[in-house]
Write a structure and sequence with these properties.
By secondary structure, the protein is α+β, with helices and mostly antiparallel strands. The protein is 26% helix and 24% strand.
Length: 141
Amino acid sequence: MNYSQLIKEAFLARERSYSPYSNFSVGAALLASNGTIYRGCNIENSSFTPTNCAERTAFFTAVSEGVSDFDVIVIVGGKKGEAVDFCSPCGVCRQVMMEFCNPKTFQVILARSEEEYKEFTLEELLPFGFSPKELLVTVQP
């Protein structure tokens, strides 16, 4: 798959980062199975706990719009907006991905540029992940 457009979208999302404390800007572009791209950026808070990562912002935006089937996410990040290394999702974001994505097929792309990126499955980033199937609960309407 050519990830060029998704990488561009992730860099555009990173431009909207609100990161006055860490100066570490992160952008994400999430491709839903229906072809829609959802952007997310990190949004910091002075008390830190309410801070939200770019990946979760993209997922929560999509879910709030009724979409919950996803194929790929691209993540870019770096100090003061400069990509200095590959930016990997935190554990909380990986767990959110497990809630909505098939760990064997969902692709996580870590990009420094359109030409330089690494490709992983969610399962590679979160082996033995906990998903809704582990709850063994049937929800009654």
